[in-house]
Amino acid sequence: MTVFKAYLKVLNKNKALVILYTVLLIFFASFNMKTNSVGTFVAEKPNVLIVNQDENRGITKSLIQYITQNSTIVRVKENDSSINDALFYRDVSYIIYLPHHFRNDFLSGKNPKIEVKSTGDYNASLASMMLERYLKVATTYREVEKDEASLVKMIEETLDHQVDIEMTSKLDSNQLMKARDFYNFSNYSLLAGCVFVICFIVASFKDENIRKRTMVSSLDMKKYNQQLLFANGLFALTLWFLYVLLSFILVGKSILDFHGLLFLFNSFVFMVVALTFGLLIGNLVQNKEAIGGIVNVVALGSSFLCGAFVPMEWLPDFVLKIAHIFPSYYYISNNHFISSLEYFELSWSFVMNIGMLLLFGVLFILITNIISKRK
Amino acid sequence: MFGHNFKCALKTLFKNKVLLFWTFAFPIILGTLFHMAFQDIESNETLDVIDIAIVENESWKENKILSHVFDELEGDLFSITYGSEEEAIALLNDHKISGYLILSDTLKVVVKENGIDQTVLKFVVEEITETEEIMKQIAFRNPMKEESFYQNLYSMIGQIQNENKVELVDISNQNLSYTMIEFYTLIAMTCLYGGMLGLYVVNQNLANQSHNGKRIAVSPTPKWKVILSSALAGYVVQLVGIALLFLYTTFVLHVDYGNDILKVIFLTLMGCFAGLSMGIMIATLFKVSENTKTGIIIAFTMLCCFLSGMMGITMKYLIDKNIPILNLINPASMITDGFYALYYYDTFSRYYFDLMSLFLFSLLMILLSIRSLRRQKYDSI
Q1: B327 with B308: CB under 8 angstroms?
Q2: Which residues face A98 on adjacent strands?
Q3: Does chain B have fewer CB atoms within 10 Å around its N or its C terminus?
């Protein structure tokens, strides 16, 4: 067990890195922790900010009330710079400036201009539709009803009208999305964690002096390699187990079914690929200083291009085409597939992706063998 | 002596491949990845044409008003497939449509899950069906109904809604692309990574760090000359790196830095200076090995960049909103915020504030370095 012990010693020196990646993972995974109800339809609510320069009564009050009911009102400090920052960083999608005398002008038949600021995204479009809808109904009724109280009542009655909506899926898509994002992000953590640590340790063992000393010792080289592989495998397995455990803690009960099992299986296969890849890079690179650069480029590169950070459907087509050359692509594709499953079903594409991952693993092992034999 | 040491330091720096990778190549690679991953995000967030289906049963065919309204919306807001209910269900299950409409006594919307498209669909259907409600309300107030009353009323409502509008004026700034922040944090990261250059060259001059340093320590050259010339060499290399990054991000990745190029350059010079002085401070203040010092710079830089929004753009906003003091002392945030101010705001007060903060940060770093370097002498080492 000398080799194994030495392995643990080197690992202990690098614990900071493993902890760093794990903390990052927890942070990202816990970032989007909104819950949603299942089974009944819940309308999306855009984030809106209303800057009211008019008195809060009558028609103005009713308008604000309507917007408030159908959107999430965001509170920020009432100065221009805070409001503009909120818009830029999408804390608010839509800002409505109700002008002075809006109520009087509107009631007297003038059409006061309302200034708005919009991020131009779909939340802003929804908020804008909302505001326009209110104003449309209000202008129509203004023609027939002059009394403000009755006018407000008419508007509110009309806007209260709800359409009958039925939701068919009973799937907790929100939780599954969260699980998917967690496992997608673990593409980076697993890859970076495995490759960095394995590379670093393999490189330590490959150090000229140490290698020579090991070679002249009575230790059987076959045993030496076995122990090294075992230790590396154990490390990768521990890392994987840690992330799986975390996923169950963070995402919770909604993946305690076949979804969880599939996520588990998929990430296990990916972990094996990451392990073989780590061994390959470790055998290729001797310079310890270069490892950090290589790991970052490989792990960040494949994570960005394959959709670990940005959802796959938002990536441009040419990027997705390039992504096919990375194992991460097949891993992440499978995560997407799992999160959309309503009942257990193994599709051909899922099996194909697993096959591709294994193929990558075999390929990495073959190349590693060729390289180490040459040396 | 100053020139000689400057030249030597410059040469050593340009020969150090690992340093050049982190300060020259890595930011460019990262920038390329950002660009590839983020270029479609914002266009994906705008409201697209929504795919829906409509069940074409008898009631639908009879209802001329509804079919007319949806014909008008086809192409602009909705892309509509007509068919039987079974076909609609199949499309919904295959995620080909966001929802479908079925008219029996009332109009019903069927969707698979919650979402923005589904909400818009619900909203539009409500808006369409509420015209009926409006007609009822108005009719209620007009007991004298002639025969053509309803027809007139319908066109009247349309007329009112089209002509008598409360106008919405969009006054938002055109520069609203928030992915730019990613590139600004990238510049900030490169500026702070420059600290590694400062660290490396200063370490070469420290007696407790390298053999070179020991030799320099016994030479009769004043320490300030050696340190200053080395730091200057570090600064020059850093500027070459950042200039390459700027050229690349501006001309290849089309990053928008605003229109005031001089202010951009000035901010970058200041940012690089802050990074360099931070590197020197870490080199002189911490009595640990070079690797550990590099580790400290990387960890500190990553933490600063994280807080200024590199790993999630909203992070900077969250900190600004809730713990503003944290970003007031964070050099990466000062740099990012400076670029943001130039890009988004028309006024420059925020920019000057960031510039001033960077200057104060650098000054503090330098004072700390001077304090720890002064009168540093060894009887034996």
Answers
A1: yes
A2: A52
A3: C
CA nearest to B124 within chain A: A129
What single DSSP character describes residue A89?
T
Higher pLDDT residue, B361 or B380?
Answer: B361
Q: Among A114, A65, A79, which Cα is nearest to A94's?
A: A114
Chain A residues within 8 A of B115 when measuring between CB atoms: 44
- In angstroms, rounded to a whole number, what is the distance separating the alpha carbons of residues B170 and A128? 11
Nearest to A135 among B125, B166, B313 (CB): B166
Mean pLDDT lowest among A351-365, B152-166, B292-306? B152-166
* Cβ pair B26:A137 closer than 8 A: no
The residues, any chain, with a CB within 8 Å of residue A208's CB and separated by 6 or more, are none
Long-range residue pairs from B19-24, CB within 8 A, at least 24 positions apart, any chain: B19/B196, B19/B197, B19/B200, B20/B241, B21/A290, B21/A293, B22/A293, B22/B193, B22/B196, B23/B190, B23/B193, B23/B194, B23/B196, B23/B197, B23/B237, B23/B238, B23/B241, B24/B240, B24/B241, B24/B244
For residue A341, the distance in angstroms to the closest alpha carbon of chain B comes to 11
CATH number of the domain at B49-161, out of 1.20.1050, 3.30.870, 1.10.510, 3.40.190?
3.40.190
The DSSP symbol for A219 reads -
B contact test, residue of A36, A119, A165, A288 with most B CBs within 10 A: A165
pLDDT digit string (tens) for A292-302? 788 888 888 99
Given A113, A143, A297, which is nearest B160 (Cβ)? Answer: A143
Please give the backbone phi and psi of residue A326, each rounded to the nearest 5 degrees, phi first. Answer: -105, 145
Residue A161 to residue A133: CA distance in whole angstroms: 12
Phi, psi of A97 (to 5 degrees): -100, 105
Q: CB of B331 within 8 A of CB of B274? A: yes
Q: Residue ranges of the domains in chain B?
A: 12-41+178-373, 49-161
Alpha helices in B204-330 (DSSP H): 211-218, 223-247, 261-285, 290-307, 314-322, 324-328
> What confidence score (pLDDT) does residue A35 get?
42
CB A24 within 8 A of CB A248: no
Q: How far away is chain B from the Cα of A249, in angstroms, using its nearest Cα?
A: 23
Strands B99-103 and B50-55, bridge-based pairing: parallel
CB contact (8 A) between residue B110 and residue A168: yes
Given CATH 3.40.50.1820, say whether it is the number of domain A47-160: no
The predicted pLDDT at position B332 comes to 96
Judge whether B73 and B85 are in contact, CB under 8 Å. Answer: no
Closest CB from A36, A88, A304 relative to B37: A304
- How many contacts, defined by CB atoms under 8 Å, are there between A and B? 226
Q: For residues A307 and B37, what is the distance between their CA atoms, to the nearest angstrom?
A: 8
The model carries a pTM of 0.86
Which residues are paired to A117 by β-bridges?
Answer: A95
Low-confidence ranges of chain A (pLDDT < 50): 32-37
Strand order in the sheet with B168-170: A72-73, A47-52, A94-98, A114-118, B168-170
pLDDT of residue A34: 41
What strand order describes the sheet that includes B78-83? A164-167, B107-111, B99-103, B50-55, B78-83
Beta bridge partners of B107: B103
pLDDT at A29: 54
> What is the pLDDT at residue B302?
84
At A98, list the tokens.
């109700």
B182: closest chain A residue by CA? A89
B129 near A CB under 8 A:
yes
Determine the Cα–Cα distance for residues B332 and B267; give it in Å rounded to an integer: 12
Name the token pair of A273.
């690929």
Residue B167 and residue A114 in contact, taking contact as beta carbons nearer than 8 Å: yes
Candidates A87, A145, A169; nearest CB to B172: A87
Q: Is the CB of B262 inside 8 Å of chain A's CB atoms?
A: no
Q: Within chain A, which residue ranges are assigned CATH 3.40.1710.10?
A: 47-160
